[in-house]
Amino acid sequence: MMQWLKNLPEMDLMRSEKMTFVQLIIPVESAHRAVSYLGELGLLQFRDLNDDKSPFQRTFVNQVKRCAEMSRKLRFLKDQINKAGLLSSALPTLQSDVDLEALESQLADHEHELIEMNANSEKLQQTYNELLEFKMVLQKAGSFLISGKSYESAEGRELDENVYPSDYPESDSTSLLEQATQSGPSNSSGLRFISGIIPKSKVLFFERMLFRATRGNLLFNQAPADELIMDHVSSEMVEKTIFVVFFSGEQAKTKILKICEAFGANCYPVPEDLTKQTQITQEVSLRLSELETTLDVGIRHRNAALHSIGVHLSIWMNMVKREKAVFDTLNMLNFDVTKKCLVGEGWCPIFAKPQIQEALQRATFDSNSQIGIIFHVMDSVESPPTYFRTNTFTNAYQEIVDAYGVAKYQEANPAVYTVITFPFLFAVMFGDWGHGICLLLGALILIAREGKLSSQKLGSFMEMLFGGRYVLLLMSLFSIYCGLIYNEFFSVPYHIFGDSAYRCRDDSCSDAHTVGLIKYRDAYPFGVDPSWRGSRSELPFLNSLKMKMSILFGVAQMNLGIMLSYFNSIFFNNSLDIRYQFIPQMIFLNSLFGYLSLLIIIKWCTGSQADLYHVMIYMFLSPFDDLGENELFWGQRPLQIVLLLSALVAVPWMLFPKPFILRKLHAERFQGRTYGVLRSSEMDIDSEPGSARHHEEEFNFSEVFVHQMIHSIEFVLGSVSNTASYLRLWALSLAHSELSTVFYEKVLLLAWGYENILIRMVGLAVFAFATAFILLMMETLSAFLHALRLHWVEFQNKFYGGDGYKFKPFSFAALADDED
Fold first, then answer.
1. pLDDT of 200 over the 50 cut
2. Can you tell me whether residue 17 is helix, strand or coil?
3. Which residue has the higher pLDDT, 218 or 98?
4. pLDDT of residue 817
């Protein structure tokens, strides 16, 4: 039997790939190209030989800094393209060598050019906004002015000095706000005014502050601006209000100007003469039209420059990202004593050795190096990484297992069985073939649009849903299957596989829910008979069926977990685990719950009325008493006594022998009586030459004994709690069925009982909403999480260590998924 099992063909996903520890000795002139080729291959995980050094003490730190600076410039260019509303074209990745110096110079020129264009554009935009504000102030403030008032305004100043500089935009002359606040000739005894513009949100507080500062000795007039104006601080379009403040005295003027400055109000001089107002307004309008033309030309020029950058942006970003990854990897290598070669170490799968050697030979040839790259296998005391080759279908299931813990090197992989058991246990809780069809449609849509969605940036929820599309596919198929067994289509039973085996006692069926139905023909051929629905014994029958079914599934899956621990022990040549762990565990579990499963099957087959609760309870309390009407088969009582004694014997069998035998073997080994290597679950003596070997830790008897005691107690208590935990299959299936029934009967049928079309439509909408968001989303998530718990806790704790670490090779393909 053992030999037959060993001769079975290997399954790729059952055990992780065999790994080997290798060393590379690379000449300096071919190091960059060699690492680049290995990154394209993506099958070698480098080990950091400089982990005792800080990033600033490594050899290629300057190159990494240059790449980081180029990445910053590329992000700046990308932000500018996005702000301009342009799209960068996605071109194929360039495979030629990267000329870092040329690219670095080119990026610096583009950055400098864009910064300069942005600065000029900001100056132009600020001046445009000031002129626009000035124009609005001129238009609105004139209506507030009273003719004939003695007033010496700032109109005597020339327009070229106060409104806009003649050598704009290169001039260093003062801005309009500064010019407006400059003190001109004044008449301290006359009535004066200050006009300007302020954001609408600040007007109320601004007016209140002016009133308090001048003690009410002012007149405040305001009018809303005709259009939105860009705020130079936040760069957002905001509503503004034009104001004119009439006052008297130089001291009041100083206070008002300071308050205007504090509130961010822009003050502009407005002449009292209507002729001059009109003249200045015309000149400002002319200047605004010129600025609009200048701004438009500048934006077109900037967009043209950004478009030319965007054509190459994705290629440049990919090139810089690759170069940085190559230099980061080179920093993990060591220089040899001659400083002419780099020495690297790492892990690779055994099947990948020819591909790695071929890539290294290409690197030597393409670099015109006179010295070849040395690639040889080494032994390592470290545990190798775990690497499973998965495809788009199996990857999601492997991720479910890895979320609990990565398998140890060459440990049995639960994902092989999770592919079927996970969606099946989900369907046991979710069984409804109407809801299953809805999930199937969603899964098929995700699979049909797989190519399009895989290239898009998805949200976190949508990304998770798309990644589990094949899990959703199997969950929906198994839900349809279990729904057909439960005979539920949105909680409604159908006569799909023929007529019911039951009928009413009379023609009116008035006693169907009280007295019950009578059986008149053979059992319904597939699934639950639709006549059970609505009968007086519906809940007792379905509860009994689903509860017993949950126990059967649970015991079967736990036995599968213990069997996988047996295959692990065979694979690692650990006979102690087989004799003192696997065998007593199988005896204990099946003496109690395996026997319960047998009783359930016998009761179903014979139609017995025996009370299984009574049988199991008194198997412990009164094992020698007569079973009476609870006896299911001949010899049941002596069998129960034997099973009970076997379960009691299995507990010390698990606890004591293994630690003492390990101590004896350890003592004999170091006393010289035997020189055999102690075989444990961490060692594989018959592994392929050159593959990784594990390091044997120092033996500590007290630690081993405590570990074995904890493991034994955990298994004994867990056998009871885990079996009870599988009853969640029954509970969630019942909850899903009853919730679906409530929505169907109390919402849809109740609304359909009215003749009003509006009530029917409302009832249909509520039913559709409840089905979509409660039954198809919340119930799906609930069943998913419970199925996840059953696999992580009840199934995997029987055999799965999950204390390994993933194989993470240096790969350019993995960089595409990383965010800068």
1. yes
2. coil
3. 218
4. 63
Residue 481: pLDDT over 70: yes
**Distance in angstroms (rounded) separating the CA atoms of residues 362 and 350:** 20
d(CA 146, CA 132): 24
The token pair at 17 is 């790939």
CA dist., res. 252 & res. 193, Å (int): 10
- Written as one string, the DSSP assignment of 358-412 is HHHHHHHHHTT-SSPPEEEEE--SSPPPB-----TTTHHHHHHHHHH-PPPTTPP
Q: What is the pLDDT of residues 665-694, one digit of tens each?
A: 888 877 654 444 444 444 443 444 444 444
pLDDT, one tens digit per residue, over 497-524 is 888 888 777 666 656 555 667 778 888 8
User: Residues 537, 515: contact at Cβ < 8 Å?
Assistant: no
d(CA 27, CA 337): 13
How far apart CA 325 and CA 332 sit, in angstroms, is 11
Provide the token pair at 736.
Answer: 């899903």
Q: What is the mean pLDDT of the chain?
A: 84
CA distances from 198 to 133, 136, 808 (A): 10, 12, 59
Residue range 808-817, pLDDT digits in tens: 999 998 887 6
Q: What is the 3-state secondary structure (H, E, C) of 548-605?
A: HHHHHHHHHHHHHHHHHHHHHHHHCCCHHHHHHHHHHHHHHHHHHHHHHHHHHHHHHH
Model pLDDT, residue 753: 86
Q: Tell me the CA distances in angstroms from 464 to 469, 472, 774, 808, one per residue in order.
A: 9, 11, 19, 22
Which pLDDT score, from 0 to 100, does residue 3 have? Answer: 59
Residue position matching structure tokens 């107690």: 713
Element at 219 (helix H, strand E): strand 219-224
Distance of CA 574 to the CA centre of its chain: 39
Element (H or E) spanning 782, and its range?
A: helix 779-789
DSSP β-bridge partners for residue 199: 240
Q: Is 305 within 8 Å of 114 (Cβ atoms)? A: yes
Count Cα atoms within 13 angstroms, Cβ side, for 304.
6
pLDDT score of 88:
62
- Give the residue with greater pLDDT, 819 vs 755: 755
SS3 of residue 734 by DSSP: helix
* Burial class for 96, CB neighbours closer than 10 Å (0-12, 13-18, 19+): exposed
SS3 of 753, please?
coil
Q: What are phi and psi of 619, to 5 degrees?
A: -65, -30
Which tokens hold the place of 628?
């009476």
Average pLDDT on 264-284 reads 86
Dig out the tokens for 781 from the structure: 């998530």
* First vs last C-alpha separation in the chain: 55
- Find the largest Cα–Cα distance for the chain: 126
User: What pLDDT was estimated at residue 681?
Assistant: 42
From 195-199, 393-397, 626-630, the region with the lowest mean pLDDT: 626-630
Single-letter residue type at 490: F
**Which whole-number Å values give the CA distances from 156 to 143, 160, 271, 272, 285, in the listed order?**
21, 12, 9, 11, 20
d(CA 502, CA 496): 15
